[in-house]
Amino acid sequence: MHEPKRHKITVLGAGAWGTAVAIALASRHDVLLWGRNPAQMATLEAARENTDYLAGYPLPPALRVTADFEQACTHVTGASADEAPLLIAACPVAGLRPLMQQLKERPIPNVVWLCKGFEYETGLLPHQVVREVLGNAVPSAVLSGPSFAQEVARGLPCALTVASDSAALRERVVSAVHGGSIRVYACDDMVGVEVGGAVKNILAIATGASDGLGLGLNARAALITRGLAEITRLGIALGAKPATFMGLTGMGDLILTCTGDLSRNRRVGLALAQGKPLETIVAELGHVAEGVPCAKAVRELAKKLGVDMPITNAVAGVLFDGVSASAMASQLLARDPRNELA
Ligand SMILES: NC(=O)C1=CN([C@@H]2O[C@H](COP(=O)(O)OP(=O)(O)OC[C@H]3O[C@@H](n4cnc5c(N)ncnc54)[C@H](O)[C@@H]3O)[C@@H](O)[C@H]2O)C=CC1
Ligand SMILES: O=C(CO)COP(=O)(O)O
Q1: Ligand 2 within 6 A of CB of 29
Q2: Is 77 exposed, middle or buried (0-12, 13-18, 19+ CB in 10 A)?
Q3: Which residues form the Glycerol-3-phosphate dehydrogenase NAD-dependent C-terminal domain (predicted)?
Q4: Most exposed: 63, 183, 196, 318, by fewest CB within 10 Å?
Q5: 250 CA to middle of ligand 1, Å?
Q6: What is the whole-number distance in angstroms between the Cα of residue 310 and the centre of ligand 2?
């Protein structure tokens, strides 16, 4: 039986996902949500709602918010071991390195990140970025899986996976997050969990484009399945365990993001099918769509590693090389036949 314990938790990043996670944890723990924009955090405090990133989901009275980075850090660095502190980074991949640099000289107890992607400039996975900045001494973990912010904020059921090579941190994350309507599974395959979370966003753009073109449910199922093959090939080349891709952060998140209209990445694909320019789509979205920078990073990485990723290449072609969505579909169909399991 899972023993509930009260934790001191700081969530760094007040976008849709950071806000939803803070809302979900505030009824069980002492949670402080930090956002980098003071004006936005003042509005959030006054309205007790994140009208910019998660409108319609009131903050529970127990959830405290701040724009003061010092206060956000002290909440966990000043906590006793008994208060089992947890530091959660809820920024996009692009913000991870700067955020870790801000944390570098502080005695943080651990760090858990929620972002999904490869660092655009370096092609590194989030755990590699974190270790490059903080070194290996700080226990670190990734928490990922199929989880739309709006559903988590509403308290609907979801299941996540925490991956870390620190058994103690895995246990702490499970202790803090598992409970209520959230189940948390644990594993030690950080590479597999991060590759699944990153590449599914690219495939959500592909399925969105296919659905937007009216190519049908058969095409959608084909893209998801061949997308999983693509994710698995890249993951294995990077040292992941193949079984991870059949789990929540692989197949689970892939299905959710490719089929759920709450997905921002899927919505990018739907808009590409209408012929909208990428700049317009990104501006109208108002949130990150990690699949966009990730498509470029993964295309380059796969080329370097000699991994065949035709759907990723096709999506990158539409996003960055002026290929139309319908030409993308034709190009994918025109490829030579291959052995399904190769
Ligand atoms: N929204 C969702 O349902 C889920 C999102 N995620 C992942 O979580 C990450 C964040 O996504 P969202 O919160 O949804 O994005 P969002 O677009 O709703 O909000 C992004 C937030 O990050 C902040 N930010 C941007 N750059 C930053 C930096 N350098 N330092 C600190 N903060 C920075 C922005 O000010 C904003 O508050 C992404 O990697 C996303 O893939 C994961 C699971 C679910
Ligand atoms: O990662 C997510 C759900 O698990 C959210 O996906 P989007 O970023 O496409 O909205």
Answers
A1: no
A2: middle
A3: 189-328
A4: 183
A5: 20
A6: 22
